[in-house]
Amino acid sequence: VARTASRPLAAGDISIFQAFIFLGGQLSLALCVLLSLNYYSIVLGTTSLPLVITYPLMKRITYWPQLVLGLTFNWGALLGWSAIKGSCEWSVCLPLYLAGVMWTLVYDTIYAHQDKRDDIIIGVKSTALQFKDDTKQWLSGFSLAMLLSLCIAGMNCNQTFPYYSAVAAVGAHLAHQIYTLDIDKPEDCWKKFASNRTVGVLLFIGIVFGNL
């Protein structure tokens, strides 16, 4: 893909062997973090490994690799809670996890639209290729599911007004993002993808002030 040709591995700046050494170092550090947690969290963290291992292969198998990314990347919604509490409060953790999965489907589908022409040539799959011109309708549905899940998670852990204000602000941001998105302009897709940092910041602020 032309857009990523300058990345170290693709450009040949590092070898496959060096990349494996770096990966081994990252995994070793991650293992140290995991082993410092309680036993419940160690088991829970370990159960994510099948997703971690298989995700990179999914774009060769299914048009929904973004869903598998969401299931993998948002495991922290479960693990973060259990690391503090020693178990999961599923009435909170599952809606929060689902919200994260839906959010990943939103921003990574937008991201995938940057590469859809190259993906067709290469023969890999994505939700961008699956949804095509219906992308905005799908993104709207995922966003609504995300907001509903955030509200359920908030209600189940007694969140307060600042939290729901932040959820409303997130909804407004996503609505503007989707409405103004041009799926045929890679530079606009990147801009919209990157703007999801605002979603995270808004929600984080809402959680902090809601708890205070």
Order of helices and strands: HHHHHHHHHHHHH
Q: What is the domain total for the residues?
A: 2
Tell me the strand percentage band.
under 5%
Per DSSP, the total helix count is 13
Q: What portion of residues is helical?
A: over 70%
Number of strands: 0
Keywords: Isoprene biosynthesis, Membrane, Transferase, Transmembrane, Transmembrane helix
GO molecular function: prenyltransferase activity
Subcellular location: Membrane
Cofactor: Mg(2+)
Key descriptive features of the protein:
globular, 212 residues, 0% strand, 2 domains, 75% helix, 13 helices, mainly alpha
General description of the model:
By secondary structure, the protein is an all-alpha fold. It folds into 2 domains: 36 residues; 162 residues, no CATH class. The chain has 13 helices and no strands. It is globular, with a radius of gyration of 19 Å. The termini are far apart.
Write a short abstract of this structure.
This protein is mainly alpha-helical and 212 residues long. The chain has two domains: 36 residues; 162 residues, no CATH class. It is built from 13 helices and no strands.
Can you lay out the helices and strands and say which pair or pack?
Blueprint: H1 8-11, H2 16-35, H3 39-46, H4 49-54, H5 65-73, H6 76-85, H7 90-112, H8 116-122, H9 127-131, H10 135-156, H11 161-180, H12 186-194, H13 196-211
Helix pairs in contact: 3-6, 5-7, 6-7, 7-10, 7-12, 10-11, 11-13
